[in-house]
Design a protein that fits this description.
The protein is of the alpha/beta class. Helix 6 packs parallel to helix 7. The protein has a domain of about 130 residues: 3-Layer(aba) Sandwich (Cytidine Deaminase, domain 2), CATH 3.40.140. The chain is about 30% helix and about 30% strand.
């Protein structure tokens, strides 16, 4: 298949159906994010939707808070030919310039793996100081929540080829898939979704739901909070800190969404049983 997130490898199959075959593998490459020309972070990601990923990542890092604070997002021309497609510069404007200076003064340069997220640097209290809670005075049928994993799975074209990617899907209240992203990292997939909506000026996403593959960590709930998403669902378990944060900020948190059943760990009033 021809896809920027996939690479073909010759492999040997061991077993009754053994032999040589071509296997498609999800690409993992580093992307350097520069802000106003200054190196900010290196994120391990699957190529594709890089601008969305950079915008969503900087939203989660509290560098930008609205689309109006972004000037340009462009690949750096001063990078060498091999790395040019893996270095993005984000130009920020207005108050984001001051926040950038603060973030740069408080951080050390690190390489972030695809599973790292914010690594607990923000506490629940500091998050609530920025965004006290989500809006979303609505209810959704349990059957709609239960249907989201299969809808998202059916849209995972690269996963079909590789079996090695996470996904995040943004749904409306009728269970229609509005946007999805795939990546080797769960956090990156959510950043791509949030970043696309940020760039389109559609935050907060107060009438949407987020479905993710895998488990729900504190960082994923935090990203939903910053995007204004009132319900997050996952096919696996949440962490304790994810539950605590969801309860504090009014996010409905669903886990083990499989078949026609699931658990609701926080703010169950949005789910109409």
């Amino acid at each position: 298949m021809s896809d920027p997130g996939v690479r073909a490898y010759d492999s040997m199959r061991v077993g009754p159906d053994g032999g040589r075959r071509v296997e498609h593998v999800a690409i993992e490459e580093p992307m350097e994010v520069r802000v106003n020309g200054v190196p900010f972070a290196v994120v391990m990601r699957t190529p594709g939707a890089d601008r969305d990923l950079a915008a969503g990542f900087l939203l989660a890092e509290d560098v930008i808070q609205s689309a109006g604070e972004i000037g340009l997002i462009e690949y750096c021309l001063d990078a060498d030919d091999e790395g040019r497609a893996n270095v993005l510069n984000v130009t920020v404007l207005g108050d984001a310039i001051c926040r950038l200076d603060e973030r740069l003064s408080n951080r050390r340069q690190v390489i972030m793996t695809a599973s790292c997220g914010l690594c607990g640097r923000r506490t629940i209290e500091s998050l609530r100081a920025r965004v006290a809670s989500v809006e979303g005075a609505w209810t959704v049928g349990a059957s709609v929540v239960a249907s989201m994993p299969q809808t998202l799975r059916s849209a995972q074209r690269v996963f079909d080829a590789t079996g090695g990617l996470h996904a995040a899907g943004l749904f409306d209240l009728d269970g229609r898939l509005l946007l999805m992203a795939e990546d080797v990292g769960r956090h990156n997939a959510v950043d791509k979704v949030a970043g696309r909506m940020l760039l389109e000026g559609r935050l907060p996403l107060s009438r949407t739901m987020l479905q993710v593959s895998g488990r729900t960590s504190f960082e994923l709930v935090q990203k939903a909070l910053l995007a204004g998403i009132p319900l997050i669902a996952a096919v696996s378990a949440p962490s304790s800190l994810a539950v605590d944060l969801a309860r504090e900020v009014g996010i409905t948190l669903c886990g083990f969404v499989r078949g026609d059943s699931f658990n609701v760990y926080a703010n169950e009033g949005r789910v109409d049983r």
